[in-house]
Amino acid sequence: MPTKAKEFLNEQLAQDRDCYIVVRDGEVQAVLDYVTTETIGKIGSVKLSIEEPDNTPGVYRVESSMILDEDENDLHDDQEIVDNQEYHDSLELVEDVAKKYGISTDLIEES
């Protein structure tokens, strides 16, 4: 089932509007026609999958990030944060993601 952001994006593209999704200030937003911003939803929590590859123990990377709204509905499957950036501490990784999203680390659930 598509996320709220994906559904919104598809609706805008069907109307021949330029649209892309951004995550900032604790919200998932759509930038329309490179001019206006519309909030799709407020971040309620984040399911963050962290990988520690077998061949590089002690190195952590983001494997996936699913952003949920306040009602625990899938808001945005953020693939942009899956960038192979390496961390040597999983807490440092979580803090970096929280900073990028503009949220508290308390909203991030690691798996």
Main traits of this protein?
2 helices, 4-stranded mixed sheet, alpha+beta, 111 residues, 7 strands, single chain
Shape: elongated
Fraction of residues in β-strands: 35-45%
Question: Span between N and C termini?
Answer: 21 Å
Residue windows where pLDDT falls under 50 for at least 5 positions: none
- Biggest sheet character: 4 strands, mixed
Number of helices: 2
For the CA atoms, what is the radius of gyration?
A: 15 Å
The helix-strand sequence is: HEEEEEEHE
What structural category characterises the helix and strand content? alpha+beta
- Mean pLDDT across all residues, rounded? 95
Strand order of the largest sheet: 6-5-4-7
Tally of strands: 7
Share of residues in helices: 10-25%
Structure, explained:
A four-stranded mixed beta sheet has the order 6-5-4-7. A three-stranded antiparallel beta sheet has the order 1-2-3, covered by helices on one side. It has two helices and seven strands; from the N terminus they run H-E-E-E-E-E-E-H-E.
Q: How are the SSEs ordered, and which strands pair?
A:
Blueprint: H1 4-14, E1 19-24, E2 27-32, E3 36-42, E4 45-51, E5 61-68, E6 74-77, H2 90-101, E7 108-110
